[in-house]
Design a protein that fits this description.
The structure is a single chain. By secondary structure, this protein is mainly alpha-helical. It has helices at 2-19, 25-51, 57-81, 91-94, 101-111, 117-131, 147-166, 169-191, 194-206, 212-220, 226-251, 271-276, 280-283, 288-301, 303-320, 335-338, 340-357, 378-406, 413-440, 457-484, 487-518, 520-527; strands spanning 87-89, 534-536. The protein folds into 2 domains: 36-251, no CATH class; 271-536, no CATH class. The chain has a two-stranded antiparallel sheet. The chain is globular and about 75 Å long.
């Protein structure tokens, strides 16, 4: 197995090395964000290493299970709602080589450490602190290492289970709803009375004698018993068996994506739904109407877009809903409560921007070459994609408005007008920039991959920069409202920014079309590239 590991790591190193000459300032700046993020956990690990030796053993045996339970929840849940599973093998590419399934399984288990390296850093700090404790046996802190393979096995099993379910169209959206519920749970626990009522249950779960975190905690503090050894052994075996079974099932599963309408696509056997999607041909003349109809139907059939669109409509509402609970000042109306609708709308546009606005040819992939061989101007294809994006953002606004009314959030004509204006301003600027980035930094997007991030470092930096810039424009409007104490100033600034945005859109689109036609071969080649043996999810 280790020869196979070395071969795969060497291949990945050579692929990464080939990209180093093209490393830009964008990649360097973007690398500062992970350094800041991991620096927080390094500081937490140093604090644990310094502070734990001064804590009494009895208190350690009470607090350590809580910490290990928190590590467990972070390791297993955070990769789900951040849509990031760390590094993973491209099994469809590697299966062509004579590599044993057990070898692939071992490599995948080791790669699960990249899904939550923060927790390994924290556990290392706790290990150092326990090792320095004067009243804990020297052998005891090494038992803390047992918590790492247990989490690796279980994280692989959970990831493969979710990915296997995402390959089935009937379960993909269901799992997305589960992930959304997991993501918003901390908000409800912190900002609602539910958190106070759930606290005793959390402490009880942490101190349960048959839980793996309690067993590892007891062993790590020197309170070893046959029961604790048996408990961690059983949990370790169960996690290994579950991970091996899920990995074997995912390894031989057919995960190919078929964009054509099948019995599982949700459109087959439903002529009314098909006729409903033909409405663009009634409002727009061909070929724009036909292109627009194609865009809408294709997007609705793509799992990645459906999940992100559902998150933009539902998740954006629910994630900000707990801010309406203010126990300390129930009658105080804060900025978020007063501007709930525009804030939620802008957050939804941000969720859709990567797949709908900033990389309009990404979902077409190699099929984008059709735009250069058919007797239809590229300008019409770009316009159809922009109109389709505007339509879906409008649908997202209506969904958010309906959910806000259902949840009884404060909604008035001013908030509706502000939401429409802010969404229009941000959308027109993002579309303008997106038309440029779509031809200058094109990259393929796998429509079946709803769980992995597919943006490169340069595109992520562009996404951050565009988001900050466009939301600053919306912020100027709210600043004008505060400065002049006038709602008319807010709407007036939004209208002015939208008019300027339309001009920027025309200039940026003309430049993008000229660049795309002049570099069509490079554009199609960039959209046709595949992935490396190891991918970052």
């Amino acid at each position: 197995m280790w020869q196979q590991v070395r071969a795969i790591v060497w291949a990945q190193f050579r692929i990464t090395r080939n990209h180093l000459p093209r490393t830009t300032v964008a990649s360097a700046l973007l690398s500062l964000l992970p350094l800041l993020w991991y620096g927080i956990y390094v500081g937490l690990a140093i604090f644990a290493a310094v502070r734990l030796p001064a804590v009494a053993v009895s208190e350690l045996r009470s607090l350590l299970p809580l910490g290990l339970l928190s590590v467990f929840l972070f390791w297993q849940i955070l990769p789900l709602f951040t849509m990031s599973s760390g590094w993973s093998l491209q099994l469809r590419k590697i299966r062509a080589y004579p590599v044993r399934d057990s070898g692939l399984f071992g490599i995948e288990v080791l790669l699960r450490a990249t899904s939550a390296p923060e927790m390994i850093i924290v556990l290392a700090g706790a290990f150092a602190g326990l090792l320095r404790h004067p009243f804990i046996p020297v052998w005891a802190p090494f038992c803390l290492v047992l918590f790492i393979p247990f989490n690796l096995f279980l994280q692989l099993a959970v990831r493969d289970m979710v990915l296997y379910a995402f390959q089935r169209n009937r379960f993909r959206e269901l799992f997305a709803i589960v992930v959304i519920c997991l993501a918003i749970l901390p908000q409800f626990l912190v900002r609602t009375p539910l958190g106070h009522r759930m606290r005793p249950y959390f402490f009880a779960a942490a101190r349960g004698s048959l839980t793996p975190w309690h067993a590892v905690s007891s062993l790590s503090t020197g309170a070893a018993s046959v029961l604790d050894v048996a408990v961690i052994a059983i949990w370790m075996w169960a996690a290994y068996a579950f991970a091996r079974w899920q990995f074997h099932r995912s390894l031989y599963a057919d995960d190919s994506f078929r964009p054509a309408a099948t019995a599982d696509s949700g459109l087959a056997g439903k002529p009314r739904a098909v006729r409903l999607l033909e409405w663009p041909g009634q409002f727009f003349k061909d070929p724009l109407g036909a292109l627009l109809q194609k865009e809408i139907q294709c997007l609705l059939r793509m799992p990645r877009f459906r999940v992100l669109f559902g998150m933009a409509c539902v998740f954006s509402v629910v994630v900000f809903f707990p801010f309406n609970f203010r126990e300390s000042a129930p009658h105080e109306i804060g900025f978020i409560r007063n501007n709930f609708l525009p804030i939620v709308d802008l957050y939804g546009v941000l969720l859709l921007s990567d797949v709908l606005l900033l990389n309009i040819f990404g979902l077409d992939r190699r099929a984008a070459q059709i735009y250069f061989v058919v007797p239809i101007p590229l300008k019409l294809a770009v316009r159809a994609k922009n109109v389709a994006a505007a339509i879906f953002i409008g649908m997202q606004f209506l969904a958010v408005l309906i959910l806000a009314i259902i949840f009884r959030v404060a909604v008035n004509p001013l908030s509706i007008a502000t939401g429409i204006g802010a969404s229009a301003v941000v959308t027109v600027y993002l579309i303008a920039v997106g038309n440029l980035t779509s031809v200058r930094m094109a990259r393929p997007i796998d429509p079946a991959q709803t769980f992995k991030k597919q943006a490169g470092a340069k595109m992520q930096l562009w996404l951050i920069g565009c988001s900050l810039g466009t939301y600053l424009l919306a912020g100027f409007a709210f600043l004008a409202q505060w400065a002049f104490r006038s709602d008319a100033a807010l709407l007036g600034i939004l209208l002015l920014e939208f008019v300027i945005g339309v001009i920027v859109y025309k200039i940026a689109t003309d430049s993008a079309l000229a660049h795309g036609l002049r570099n069509r071969e490079q554009l199609v080649d960039a959209l046709s590239k595949g992935a490396s043996p190891i991918s970052a999810g």
